[in-house]
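Practice problem: predict the structure.
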Amino acid sequence: MSTATGVGSLPGTDFAEATRLVLGELPDLPHVPELPARGVTAGMTGRGLAVVEGLAADLQPAGWRLTDASGVDHRRARSLLAQDLDTVEELAQGWTGAFKTQVAGPWTLAATVEKPRGDKVLSDHGARRELAQALAEGLAAHVADLRRRLAGVDRLVVQVDEPALAAVVAGRVPTASGYGRHRRVDLPEASAHLEWVLGAISDAGAEPWVHSCAPQTPWSIVAGAGAAGLSADLSMLGPEDLDTFAEALEGGRTTALGVVPSLEPEGGASDARLTERVQRWFDMLGLDLEALGGAAVVTPACGLAGATTGWAARAVRLSATVARNL
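Answer:
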């Protein structure tokens, strides 16, 4: 039986309402909602820095920057995360089964956070190593906190969001001036930093997934780093990715396929057509969907933060319907 879940982000600013939506419509694998419309402290980078352990940050005109002491915005990001988890704990009281949360990955943070004296963490080998290790340490504590809050949950998934990974390994991340590009990160280093983070999640007793809806994501590196689940926008997967996903599924890993449009398409969307699209993809891999059981997960193509509230709810329900059809 296929299951459905969300990528993470939703529109609006009412966290309790968003939590009720995912609990009600995604009962097999609900997730902690992310509502970036509440401001930078609730965005992907701010949320990631709220989890990081042992490093301080502050919000500057150019964005988030590592600092000697946490600024007011960093403290707000941590406080907001704690408040949101309080809400999840209250509304999911007595919840059993599975649950998912999301966090920005080490390379996406390195590509979006600045060093104390400016320019991205990505530009400094030592700084990006320190940030990845601090994220790994923070995730161990974060998983323990979620375990305490959701005591009945027997399967906790931590989705590591890496939308910048493709740009990092291809040398496409712009420098502070905007006129140049940071040097590409070698694949062994890219893999090592992911391994630290994914390993920390596994050691804490959770299941590490990696999500990206960016084209040319190096999925073979992700799989080799220890991801138990690969989550992608199906339209962004190329022929070079088929073997990686087939091997992952045959090896018992989870594949979350983003098939429901993140923005409302003209003319709407049909669950029958979306179901057929997923079936064709598995036929192309030469895999039997029935034999895979719950290893196939249906999601929206990417986050829903840019959607209307109405379409976001519809997309969540469509994901659940396609999963049932499969």
